[in-house]
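re: that chain from earlier
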Amino acid sequence: MKNLSPVQQQVFATLRQIIAEETNHDPEEIHLDSHLEDDLSVVVEPDNGSLFSILIKKINRSFDIDLDPAPFVDESYENQTVDLLVELVADEIDLQ
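^ sequence. v structure.
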């Protein structure tokens, strides 16, 4: 498993809870290498009513950030994992 900074560990723990609540997965089933669509049934699309869009809004509220989903949406399909989301959120927190 990848070594996470303290900020990334906190982000991962919170993301696990958010994703678990929205997808009805057990938080223990959500790992850094979990693919949003393949493993967690979250289709990565920027539509306002999509589950992905709802997750981004909850993430922004939880961390008091303004995460732009475009870098995640634009990432290659195979890289759309929880790990990438952790990195993007942690980077946004570091910018504050």
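Residues 6-23 form the longest helix (18 residues).
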